[in-house]
Amino acid sequence: MCGIAGFFQARPLDERAYGELERMVARLKHRGPDGQSQHVDLGRGLAMGHTRLSIIDLTRSGTQPIVDRERSLVLTVNGEFYDYKTARATLSARGERFETKTDSEIALKLYRRHGLQFVDDLRGEFAFALYDGQAERLILVRDRFGVRPLFYHLRADALYYASEAKALLAHPSVPKRLDHKSALNQMMHTLVPGTSAFEGIGALLPGHFMVVERRGGRLHVTTRKYWDADLLQAAEHDPSPDPDRYVVRARDELIDAVRVRLEADVPVGCYLSGGIDSCSILGLSTSMQQSAVKAFTIAFDDDAYDESVVATEMAFRVKADQEVLRLTAPDLYGDSYIRTLWHAERTFYNTLGVAKWHMSKRVRECGFKVVVTGEGADELFAGYPFFKRDYFVHAPDESSRRHQQAMDAKNALFEGAILSEEPVSHPAFEDLCGFTPSWLQPWILTLSRVRPLFSDATLEALGDYDPVAAIAEKLDPSQVRGRHVLDIAQYTWMKTMLECQILNWGGDRVDMANSMESRPPFLDHHLAEFAKTIPPSLRIRNGVEKWVLREAMKGVLPELLYKREKFAFMAPPAHTDPTKRHAVKEMVDARMGPEQIAQAGLFDPGRVQRFIDRYFGGDQDPVLAKRDDIILNHLLGLHIIHQDLVLAA
Question: Which helix (H) or strand (E) holds 565?
Fold first, then answer.
């Protein structure tokens, strides 16, 4: 794992490029504290920088950029290519010679042989830049699910790119302003795919690569999709499936995905919550490792949100060396909250991201640079309650209605947050999907409460911008039309919330904040390509979510966990605890005074103050209290991002 940054211009660079690149790379030191290096070619208009977190090939031979002088190729990689030893052996047998022992170098050799088709042979979580001097082109590539981040700012004569937007903000040619449309999307919690919090800074979409070529004093840019879920048509699902076949295949694919992610030249630990996802990963990792696996668990000071007891039972079952990190209000707010925002570069609705920042910090203090995690299982195997709601709501039989009622009752704690308390629709999604996915409905309700907080000037600038329609417009209709309701719900979530939430402040950004790499086996594309073939009736069977995964891991999981319903992993919201409310109030007073609100230029100070007074006045409906807690987190986050990233750039 590392950080990358650089720029590519249509015309030659001058000597200032060295200092500009150095400042960009310095902003990514947390991603790669083990070394920083750069490759600058003034005449070619090229500057490529790299910060290194050494995990594979700990010697200096693994330093990047990697340069192939014979073919004028230069490579910088953030992330991992799995099964790289097999790839190296195969390429060596075909005459390729390697200069390093790293996994990264296989990208150069595959590109030499296959050109732009080389991305099809890469397995892993990665974002990288490859320069081809003979073709005078720079290629940016991002992994299939967007596990690793990659941002860019494009002008007619220059491209700037980096693993994190803050590195782009360090360059004098990149604008330093919050984007008004993005601010509205963040306030409703759902970013438009391919965007960031900042004006003029985009995110390369998962499963895409960008080719930037120098021609006639200008840059010519093309972006191509090389991978998508390509879900089965509804009619293509097996109407009478053999469950055992899917269970066995799921087990085999997951075992292989875990196997390749345990490959490292440093010890590998495991994140462990009380869900079957991380417990399955721990169980398989324990079986493959020669010594006890170190497992890290978060515990909260509110029993309604704490899963650590279940996690501890799993750790005891497999004899893992478990460490439980107990977090209270002082841990979730104040400086830790601010640090997490600085790294996430987007707002969050819940302090779970802060909790995970603490966990990655503790992992690093224990001497670990790598952990395996359970992210992605809910996406592939239909684990979230909103997936179940869509599956039940659109099923015609009475048993599905009973399952829905039972599920809603068990998930009442999350109404107003991840579940909508009432059905709501939007015409853009009705047109795209035939229905409005349940995962989006609470955020549509949130939108109606946040829009009035913006200033008149911001609302005028936004005009008729519809943040929900903007999300729908970025989704590929060909991946949705004719699909089963459950497939549509899973796909639309994966293309939005997985990348901008789960893998951001719930994944890479808070892990790499402490120079620690997380690896999610469930997001292995081989496993994903199998999971899409599982009939919906087996993903959710007799009202049980992730049924195939449960059966595949039945021998690994304790009975309590095997039978346990999915529980959303969240930190206790501030409104549930006077101590947390006080901690939030201190941050609001320090960061959201009338002058600070006016300086950010997004919201009306008077409207915001009335919202704050209502929030801290208490005595609200519990559903609205959860929603207002979310809104306050986003309000606070935008102002902290403005002050600490925009103004400080």
Answer: none
Q: What is the CATH number of the domain that holds 94?
A: 3.60.20.10
Task: Give CA 125 to chain center in angstroms.
Answer: 11
Cβ-proximal residues to 421 (8 Å cutoff; 6+ apart), any chain: 415, 442, 445, 623
C-beta separation of 209 from 141 below 8 A = yes
∠ at Cα 38 (33, 40), nearest 5°?
165
Residue whose C-alpha is closest to residue 600's, from 197, 194, 24: 197
The answer as to whether 640 is a domain residue is: no
Q: What separation in angstroms does the CA of 373 have from each of 271, 282, 297, 344, 502?
A: 5, 8, 11, 19, 12
Distance between CA atoms of 275 and 277, rounded to whole angstroms? 5
Closest CA to 482 of 552, 447, 432: 432
Q: What is the pLDDT of residue 507?
A: 95
- Once rounded to an integer, what is the mean pLDDT over residues 230-237? 96
Side chain identity, residue 71: R
Question: CB–CB of 625/614 below 8 Å?
Answer: no
**Angle between the N-to-C axes of helices 622-641 and 335-344, in degrees from 0 to 180, rounded to the nearest 10:** 70
CA distance 85 to 339: 37
CA distances to 58, 309, 350, 367 from 305, in Å: 40, 11, 12, 29
pLDDT tens across 180-211, in order? 999 999 999 999 999 999 999 999 999 999 99
Q: What is the CA radius of gyration of the chain?
A: 24
Q: Alpha helix locations (H) across 292-422?
A: 308-317, 329-332, 335-344, 352-365, 377-381, 385-393, 398-410
Considering the entire predicted model, what is its pTM? 0.96
Q: Is residue 392 part of a domain?
A: no
CB 525 within 8 A of CB 9: no
Mean pLDDT along residues 553-581: 84
Q: What is the pLDDT of residues 451-460, one digit of tens each?
A: 999 999 999 9
Report yes or no: 35 and 243 within 8 Å, Cβ to Cβ: no
Segment 568-573 mean pLDDT: 78
Provide the number of structural domains found in the chain: 1
What is the SS3 assignment for 540? coil
| Tokens describing residue 36 | 């920083």
3-class secondary-structure state, position 644? helix
351 occurs within a structural domain: no
What are φ and ψ of residue 269, in 5° steps?
Answer: -100, -165
What pLDDT, on a 0 to 100 scale, did the predictor assign at position 269?
A: 96
220, 574, 637 from 587: Cα distances, Å: 46, 12, 10
Query: Residue 194: CB partners within 8 Å, gap ≥ 6?
Result: 202, 203, 204, 205, 474
> Which residues fall within 8 angstroms of residue 364, CB to CB, at 6 or more apart?
514, 515, 516
Indicate the length of the chain as a whole number: 649
Q: What stretches of 26-165 adopt beta strand conformation (E)?
A: 36-41, 46-52, 66-68, 73-81, 124-132, 137-142, 151-154, 158-162
- Tens digit of pLDDT for each residue in 386-402? 999 999 998 877 677 77
Residue 476: inside a domain, yes or no? no
- Here the tokens at position 8 are 């590519």
| Residue span of the structural domain in which 158 resides | 2-225
Residues 338, 347 contacting (CB under 8 angstroms) = no
Complete edge-to-edge strand list for the sheet that includes strand 137-142: 66-68, 73-81, 124-132, 137-142, 208-215, 218-225
Q: How far apart are CA 643 and CA 647, in angstroms?
A: 5
Q: Which of helix, strand or coil describes residue 151? A: strand
